[in-house]
Batch of 4 targets.
Target 1
Amino acid sequence: SGSVKAGKMPEGEKIRQCKQEEEQQQKEEEREGLIEFYSSYQELFQFFCSNTTIHGAIRLVCSKKNKMKTAFWSVLFFLTFGLMYWQFGILYREYFSYPVNLNLNLNSDRLTFPAVTLCTLNPYRYSAIRKQLDKLDQITHQTLLDLYDYNMSLPQRDWSTSSTQKRSSRSLLHHVQRHPLRRQKRDNLVNLPENSPSVDKNDWKIGFVLCNENNDCFHQAYSSGVDAVREWYSFHYINILAQVPDAKALDESDFENFIYACRFNEATCDKANYTHFHHPLYGNCYTFNDNSSSVWTSSMPGINNGLSLVVRTEQNDFIPLLSTVTGARVMVHDQNEPAFMDDGGFNVRPGIETSISMRKEMTVRLGGSYSDCTEDGSDVPVQNLYSSRYTEQVCIRSCFQLNMVERCGCAYYFYPLPGGAEYCDYTKHKAWGYCYYKLLAEFKADVLGCFRKCRKPCKMTEYQLSAGYSRWPSAVSEDWVFYMLSQQNKYNITSKR
């Protein structure tokens, strides 16, 4: 019989076998676990390529054998990635642009009737200011005779003048001689004025030159002789008014001689319903329904539910060289805003019934990041010279006047007077005309920055107007209408059509 003897296993072999069993057991545990861990990134990448459902990623990083396919999917991937961020940029920019929706609300409530300003279109009655304008009219008469061979008929003058008026006449004559009205021949070279559009030199006919103490001159030229005469006459007219201590008192308000009848909502108006002010060019102005009395309201449309006026114009007493139109100047505006007759007004002609319909538009702008509007103008770097609330036109005119005082040393007669300043007068400021027209050209080109400084108000009220016209009174009714108005106002009215 034989016997088998088992030898002992070496100690090192036993340890190695135990490690292999432990590693095998660890791998089996990893396969059976919910989360599998890989010993290298290569194994993880192989698992990703074999099991992912992202088709683009498979074709981009797992197609080693087809480089064209990999390149195509690489381009496609980066293109879509860029489009995604481009879309994000659009959404981001739109969000931070603070877009708004337009909301329109139509209401039928009682509305506050706007303020209505009416002017005579005649700065002064010629009979009241004839003495002050007498010398200027004579010079203009001689100028028209020299330039156009036109003999202008002037009213009979009062030769009794005081020593003060004689000195003023000599001063005016000297000033006019320094700034004469000249007519250019068509074959002469003409320097284009800085404040006029570029036109052919042969279109210029007449104008005047303004120079300063250094003989630096500014050409104010016109293609129309009528425009040139009116502007030249107005320039000297302003100088005359600036020398009169209280020029507005030369032609005091006479409401009854201008407005024959006034009704609002079928009720008669009286003096408590209007305020008076004087405009240097448009004359006596009357504002109805301002804040000086109880404000009118209206809830129904139609002529009978609004303001109705019968106005008389005295054409025979107009300043002939300054007032070239006849009728009345009308402006509709908010109660808290000044009446800028030259900007927002319009003329109505005599012998015509003008029916004006209006639509109120209120604009409310969002401030902050949405716009640079201003609530009350307190954050605008321009002093408000008007006794009214802030508007864009109030700011622009105040800006020009403040620049006028700073640059020219005096204030323009048509705008409010800043504190410590005085109105321009050629007896004290000999070159103010040159400075004014030079500054006006810079103002229109926005060199002064007034249009940039003056921001729009956040709340603004505007009135859109439309007008209809008809003859008044009619041919068959004018006799009795004129007779009744004559008896009512104790004035002789005749029709000359």
Target 2
Amino acid sequence: MGIRLVFVFKVCPCILEIVGTHNE
């Protein structure tokens, strides 16, 4: 469960960055 949380926290910023770049 802890590893999964770390994975989400590491992946979320990447997705947000990609989405933000696509929006701009």
Target 3
Amino acid sequence: MGHANVVDLSERTECTSCKWTHLRKRTEAAMSDVKNVGVIGLGVMGQRMLQLLYKQPTLRATYVWDANPSAVQATLETYPELKAASSASDLIQQQGLHSLYIATPPAAHIDLTNEALDRGLAVLCEKPLSTDGAVAKECVARIAASSARTGVNFPLATAQGLSLAESLFGDNKPLGALHNVSISASWMQWPRPWQQGAGRWLSERQEGGFTREVLSHFVFALQRVVGPLTLIHSAATYPEESNLAETDLNARLSATRDGHAISVQVEGHVRGDIPCYNQVRWEGTKGTLVLGRWFSEIQVLLADGSDFPVEQKHRDDVDLATHWAALVDGKPNTSDEASTASPVDTVPLVSQAKSLFQALTGDVKGAAQTQDNFTKGCPVVSQARSLVESTILRDPSAAAKTQKHFLSFSLDHCIGLSQAKSLVQAIRGDTAGALQTQDNFTRGCAVISQARSLVESTILRNPEAASKTQEYFFGKKSQAGEAPDCPSSTLECVVCLTEMKTVLLLPCKHLCLCQTCSTKITDLCPLCKAPIATKTSVFL
């Protein structure tokens, strides 16, 4: 996947009445390449995927369906541009659909997959493909015979830890020949707290259980490194006189890689006082790789005691969307190929901040290009484009319309909404309201955003202060104390209210947790209770 055409605002004519004509036509041309996606299943995973789709400029959610009418209604209220199908089959039969995402309970996966394949759709399905192994093999054989475009969602495929496990082991590699792997996981309760609303199936043997739901992710990653596994022994413990899923699992497996035998131990338990724990330990003849907390914690231990530093990289869920987009297009979508396919800014926060900084330093063309990279092809046109409209093109009317469009698709606790709301207030002349919104957003946040800089530059007409804020946002100041002129240099954790040196960056965009509190966070954000798949510490 390459870049869609980048809109260069310097090429537009100077005619005020038609200054958006060329931009609109070229934007429409870019939008014609967008692929339509149907989403079946609107629980936790379905909602996550809808959010993800808005970050991917070449995929667009169009139709949704869920067996629970209230879930459909709530989704339509959040995303009014979506259409609800009358049934799962009705959704699959919709004209103009290119891909289907399946996030229902597992029993329905195989039938929905086969129906989608009958329609020629690209399919992304949550695991497992089927609760019946024989039926799953039949479907895999069908997929292979027809070269269908399909995938099962295992997000660890794009994890840095998996790439390290694939590259660090070997006779002539830093950690030597891999000879032992241990997978261990435990939960204080099952299902996990954030899954309580998903239904009973997660706690029952037929479709649920932690082995199928969680350990499968790590077994998938293991097979990516060592190839096929042979089961030697397994033992599961189930509650007596019930249909509930396993509470304990112990298994031994074996594999062969580069001629070396590898022993594998897998264990999982529902017990203890730790809400969620998981670790995969890869042992080689020269050292060990330890991957914890969904591969987000990486440690390399060399046998000779020397250091082996690893620069950890944040894995954004946009990685999955990029692979998915390549899959839909019938293009290669392995980690290496898909990760280099679309080198555009994928983090809206940074993209907008970068653009604003370019505009403040006089690089109008660069700012416009950055904004277009961010907004290109997105159904939800963001405040980033409004910024171009209001400050570069001097078109407050268009900016107000863009903001209204953006606001209609956002949630009140989102960073984007806070900035958009402030922009709308500023455009309407409500300076006091805009400043209050900005204060609500920036107060207590270690990363001072471009939102406050926008207030400084456009409302207070203080570009010097705005530049300082941008400099602070981009990490030019390594310690908060070194930037006394920047706003909110003394910060407090919103959980324990103590001064802090680091913050926790969560998918829900809450940035105000100290290092001590961040270590206690497991599955849920303590502020909005949103589920957490990954998190990244930001040092100031």
Target 4
Amino acid sequence: MDIASAVDVGLKGAFIAVALDTTLRCLYKGFYEATLISRARITVGCCFLATSITNFLLKLPLGSGCGLNARISIVVFHVAMVLGESLQMYRISIITNNNKWFVSLATILMLLRSGIGIADMILSNGGVSLAPDETFQHCIFNQNQFTGITYVGMDAIIELFITTAITSVLFLHTRELIMLKQRTKNALLYRTIIETNVFRTCFLFLVNLLTLLMVLLNSESVWLGFLWSILGISYLYFVIYDKNMVRFLQNLGKSEAPQDPYTIRQSQLRYRGSTLSLEDWTQIHHGNQQTTSTTPSSPRRIGPVEIPNNYNFV
């Protein structure tokens, strides 16, 4: 095994470790007790774990096992990518208040991506040749040129589309830009969702674009393997980040600091006409808020959009 292949194997081994850690973190509180969005996120982590393991095995001398491992790898890879992008589309559709133009374009893009993924699974014949390379003793990658370039380009277009939708929400709603300067729960939540998605989609768009350019230029396969691993690790990182942000937002929703100026102002507005003192009213208001915030009776608002109470934000 040459040095380049050894580096690629080591990177894929690290990918397996990250994927396994991510999957265990997602499964910590139980798959069946999770929401639909959480279950889909767990499935993405499991798919990337299976992809990383099979890709790692492809670099080992497996003889006739190349074809089977490659078919498993390419199937779970496309499933993970389509499912992950669908989750992003669904999440942004909530932020854009289910805008009909966004939903229509998102549906068309995801149908095209799914069709290209199915075509790639058929035309690439499992992704590798059925016999290992006799020189380096590992499986030879045999990606179909048309479908390989097309689905990488579609991934880049989808990420750019999501980024455009998020930035449109950020810059078109001037009222929310003013609200971002306040330290309220909704302002923090709105800003966190926007900034996280902008960073994620910009980063993944650049990685997909670089991968597409390297495919068009017929670059060395070891660098393409490096980019694939970076792409997969990036997706897994965002899975871990999303999980931690959910816990943070849940803790944020359980208690809101009484010294928050916005909240105090709301207490003062409700206090008018009451026979209680302002201090007693504020104390009662915050006490009730702490006990009822975990099960609110009305939808929450993120900027211009009302979010269902049972919606998993990330």
